[in-house]
Design goal:
single chain, mainly beta, ten-stranded antiparallel sheet, two-stranded antiparallel sheet, about 5% helix, about 25% strand, globular, signal
């Protein structure tokens, strides 16, 4: 079976509730940011108009952007509205792995590291992720309301190597994304739960 295919199929079973629409009914997205899920990357810089159709790829088990190598991420859902860490089978995820590339094109983020899961220099247990009530979908934020992310301005392909994802930084000397990069959004895609007999709940 192609790597990443089964989780993608399971995610699709729940994704009908997230179909793009001009007007969405009121919905508490914090209740969707639970348990196990994939993280899809949306080529959009506007939370009001972004939707799953903007997907250009997903994050792999090491936290890097790929076309279809979608890892399963785990979130502690004991308190749905409380920020918590994220991890994959490789380990916890963090923006503090110094083995990852820096975003040297960014004025304010030049010393920031790309996201990483399972890096040897991190534990990630004190780096928290959450979504916000009022979003149309469970977009992932981190830290002090950092809800946008930064990638080199190109979409992944079947043949491209995994691409780094950085936090988006801005300020008076750089009000928007740096030249040659895209400001993007991370979307949590919850996976269907399986019953002990193997059926999807």
């Amino acid at each position: 079976m192609q790597k990443g295919l089964l989780p993608t199929a399971l995610a699709a079973l729940l994704w009908t509730q997230f179909a793009c629409a001009a007007t969405l009914p009121a919905h508490d997205v914090t209740k969707d940011f639970l348990g196990r899920g994939q993280i899809h990357l949306l080529n959009s810089s506007n939370f009001n108009t972004a939707c799953p159709d903007d997907r250009i790829g997903c994050l792999n088990g090491h936290g890097m952007l790929t076309l279809n190598d979608c890892a399963v991420f785990n979130r502690n859902d004991a308190i749905p509205s409380f920020p918590t860490n994220l991890g994959t089978a490789a380990g916890n995820c963090s923006f503090r792995d110094q083995d990852m590339p820096r975003n040297t094109d960014s004025y304010y983020g030049a010393d920031s590291f790309a996201w990483s899961c399972g890096g040897k220099n991190i534990d990630g247990l004190d780096e928290y992720y959450y979504t916000v009530t009022g979003f149309n979908y469970p977009f992932i934020c981190s830290g002090d309301i950092r809800c946008y992310y930064d990638i080199v301005g190109k979409a992944p392909t079947h043949h491209s190597p995994p691409m780094p994802v950085w936090q988006f930084f801005w300020g008076g000397s750089q009000m928007d994304i740096e030249a040659g990069h895209w400001r993007v959004i991370l979307l949590w895609v919850p996976l269907a739960k399986e019953s002990p007999g193997g059926a999807v709940a």
